[in-house]
Amino acid sequence: MPASGQVLIETTRTHRKRLGSALAYGELEERQTPNTNAKRVLGSIVVAAVICAVLVGTAFVLNLLATQKEEQAVAAFRTALAANPLKPGGDWVQDEPTGFLRNKRTGALVDPQTGYLVDRRSGLSKDPAGRLIDPRIDWYIDPGTGYYTDPATGLTIDPKNQQIVRTR
């Protein structure tokens, strides 16, 4: 069969398929709508906005919780400074100049909250790990900087301005 006859057969077959499709499904313009990706773009914008809102909300809540924790630590520091729970009794009498308990026989100063011996010169005590403690409030002291650290939360405070110290 010559090539022109083969082309004619293929053309006729294509026309019949198109006519059958037009009869079954409607005209070509009705069946094929152009894809502009508008729905995808709009969906992507909505998803990006939701993700941004979640991230901003999470950052806000985490910052709020951290601020509350810091405020509680500063309030605990101020309360601990104001309170002095020393109670004399037995061989222990209140040492007026220091406010600690002093043993009548040995003259040793002791912190009644912890039972640690208190150094007469500095008014500080040491825990078994060798860390300096202010026995009035039971916070650790960094001898190099003078900053106080809350043993419960681990937050560090500058006692001069009573602000949280950010250590990095």
Work out the strand percent. 5-15%
Overall, the morphology is rod-shaped
Count of separate structural domains: 2
Provide the residue-averaged pLDDT. Answer: 80
Low-confidence stretches: none
- Our measurement of the CA-to-CA distance between the termini, rounded to an integer number of angstroms, reads 86 Å
The strand count comes to 10
Number of helices: 3
Produce a short descriptive summary.
With 168 residues, the chain is an alpha+beta fold. The chain is built from three helices and ten strands, in the order H-H-H-E-E-E-E-E-E-E-E-E-E.
Account of the 3D structure:
The protein is of the alpha+beta class and 168 residues long. It folds into two domains: 1-33, no CATH class; 35-164, no CATH class. Helices cover 43% and strands 15% of the residues. It has three helices and ten strands. The strands form two sheets. The chain has a six-stranded antiparallel β-sheet with strand order 5-6-7-8-9-10, covered by helices on one side. A four-stranded antiparallel β-sheet has the order 1-2-3-4, with no helix packed on it. The mean pLDDT is 80.
